[in-house]
Each structure stands twice: as C-alpha cells, then as structure tokens.
Amino acid sequence: MPEENFTNTLYTNDNLFILNGLNSDLVDLIYLDPPFNSKRTYSAPVGSKAAGSSFKDMWSWEDVNEAYLETLAANYSNLTKYITSIGGIHSKAMSAYLTYMAQRIIEMHRVLKDTGSLYLHCDPTASHYLKVLLDEIFGKNNFRNEIAWCYTGPSGSKKNFPAKHDIIFRYSKTEDRYIFNYDAIRIPYKELHTDKGKKAKIWGEEGKLQNQEIREQYVERGKIPEDWWNDIPSGGHISPKERTGYPTQKPLALLQRIINASSNEGDIVFDPFCGCATTCVAAQQLGRKWIGIDIEKQAVQILIERLSDDAGMFKDFVATQLIPQRTDIQVVQPSQSIKERLYKQQNGKCNGCGNEYLMKDMEIDHIIPKAKGGGDYYENYQLLCGSCNRIKGSRPMEFLRQLIKTREAMMENQLIFGE
Ligand SMILES: C[S@@+](CC[C@H](N)C(=O)[O-])C[C@H]1O[C@@H](n2cnc3c(N)ncnc32)[C@H](O)[C@@H]1O
Ligand SMILES: [Zn+2]
User: N or C end of the chain: which has fewer CB within 10 A?
Assistant: First the structure.
C-alpha cells in the first residue's frame, strides 16, 4: 500500500502476515500493547491462530520456537543467542514469547519511518527481557524512555507491594531526527494547582529558580510530564461512556499523550495489537491516519461499533482480512533467468535439505508464502528440490526445517538401533 493512496485500515489477521505485506518506511508512530500470559501453554504461537494451524498438529510451541530461531539466526545472531539463553535463565515459555515478539518487532522496525518512534506497552512480567530485545533491534542509542504508568486500586496482596504500574518503552528509529512535540503534551504544575495564591517554587528548565513574572509564564505553559505518569487513571477507571467491555482496554488519554508527543497531524499511527482500537480512535480524533490489526474477530466487531458510533467521525476506513502486498519492492514474476540466478546463488543446492541437484530438478518457491504476506519479488524466492517444495507447500520455512530435522533425528536413531 503506497502512502499516497493510504486509507485508514483495520485488519483482522495475524499481525506478522500483515506486517510482511506493508511497505518499508510507511508509518510515523507505532504503539503496541501485546498480550502476555505466562501461564499459557504454548501449543502454538501465542494468539496466532492462523500461523498455529500449520504447526499445531505436529509440534509443541518449543519446537516451533527453535525453528523460528534458526530463521532469525542468519541476520540477528546476537539476538538469537540472547533468546536461547533466556530459555535457561527464565523458562522455555519466555524464550518462545521473545521469539514471537522478535519476529514482529523486526518487521515493525522496517515499516517505521526514520523520523518515527515506537512505544511498547508491557509490565514487569516481561519488561526486562523485552528491553534487551528492543535494544538489539533498534540499537541501544535509540532507547529514549522507560515510562512508568502508575495507577492505584484495590489489591489483595499481603506478601508483596501491590503491583500498580505498567511499563512503556519508547524508542526512536534514528538518534536525532525523531519527533517529540513537547509543547503539545504539557501538563499543569501540581504545586500551583494545590497552592493557588501561595508562593510556589518553580524551577525553570535550566534548573534556575524563576522570578514572579517568569514564574507566571511557566505556570501558564505547564510542564513536560516526567517519565512516570500518574495523572491518567488505569483501565479500571475508564468512564462508562468510553468503556467498550474489552478486557484490556487502555484509556484514550494515554494514547492521546503518546500520539501528540510523537506524531504530527496527517501522520500515520499504527497499532499491530489494537484490541478495541483505542489507538485508532485517538489517532482519528487528533487528525492522524491509522492502521490497526487484531487477530480476534470479536475485537473487530467492537471496533467497528466504536468507530461508527463516534458522531459519524469514522466514515472512511476499510475493515479487511486480506493481506496487503508490498509495492515498494520490484515485482518480478518467476522465470528461467530468475531460476538461473538463484541456482548460482545457492551453489546448486536445495535450500531445504541442502542436497545438490541439477537445475531442471529444482523449483522456485516463495520463502514467505503469498498467503502470509510474501510477494513476487526476488528476495522472496528460493530454489527447493521437488520433494522439499511439496513438503513445504504454502507454509513457512520453519515447517520444512523442523520436518527435515525430525527426519534426520529419526534416521540417526534407526542407525543406532541397527548396530
Ligand atoms: C492487551 S490487548 C490490546 C488492547 C488495546 N490496547 C486496547 O486498548 O483495546 C492485546 C491484543 O492483541 C491481540 N493479538 C494477540 N496476538 C495477535 C497477533 N498475532 N496478531 C494480531 N493481534 C494479536 C489480542 O487479540 C488482543 O486484542
Ligand atoms: Zn530438498
């Protein structure tokens, strides 16, 4: 989807497939609030029903995770080592979760413009592990803030301090070109609110105590919020008018602050785990364009109702399950000359089993299947032998790799038994 023809779009699908089909350098701001449920048993990639179905019958999530890691290893060797080690330090489930997140964050980084920012909303269940992942994908110098969103409410905790904050990591794609509209997010100084008429101390931004006149200017302008936010009530306190019934709904005020700070009017705001579309609603209200994705059909239903409800504001959007096709890569149909180029590049070996074949016995395959966001472009082609190509079908490479591995292990066992 080229930016000129952009239409606000809500996708119902696995966000990995949609991400695969989005152009690079497309969006200005990404906010994501992914699920994390550590008690879940990972029989399939978290939440990704579509991806899961091709694996579910055969392997546990840990197996799938290993195969995905092999794919990551080619380009992100440090990341792969890190994720693998977390399997021993924390748990296999955490390592599986990080793999799932890594694949998606790598794609998010690709679709983000150079002036763009990403906000990842999480909590201490996984925040420390996710921070390392983000440092590796975005570069540690592009870490901008760890925002603690603090709230209060009843707690049954008797052995611990009640856990009442979320973490929002803020990263920029580049070190010096990112948008930060600090004047658009100023908030009142607290002391002056409460001590009206009294002499409150106001420090200037250079850290100097200010005189009365300057003080008044400061009061009027308000301050840039610190990296802890306690002025936005939590989900549990969302007003009945705003509430949709979606269990993990975030308040509009939270998204408004993020969107105002890190995007300008007309920019594209993207939420790949959009739930009941809080981000899309806030973006629309603030004159931004938007893309939302959620895998749950139920979420989409709520979203459509929410968007349609809002005083007729939302007429121009598309709701679809279809995977977009990238238009920023040259489309080339498979041909004999492509085959020859690939044959040379792969040294005559099948990319699945690794065995050598004559060119006539090889077939061109889409590495990322078209049904999962892959397109007709050179980088997405490879040669497989007939047997590997039939096994893979329209599934991802991980499927083929895992199957080959399982077969090899079985052969080895047979050999040992045969002795
Ligand atoms: C914590 S909720 C997001 C809530 C959202 N911020 C809001 O205000 O409503 C996480 C969402 O991610 C969705 N999800 C999980 N895995 C997904 C995937 N692979 N692709 C797209 N959405 C996914 C879930 O259906 C869920 O709605
Ligand atoms: Zn093969």
Answer: C
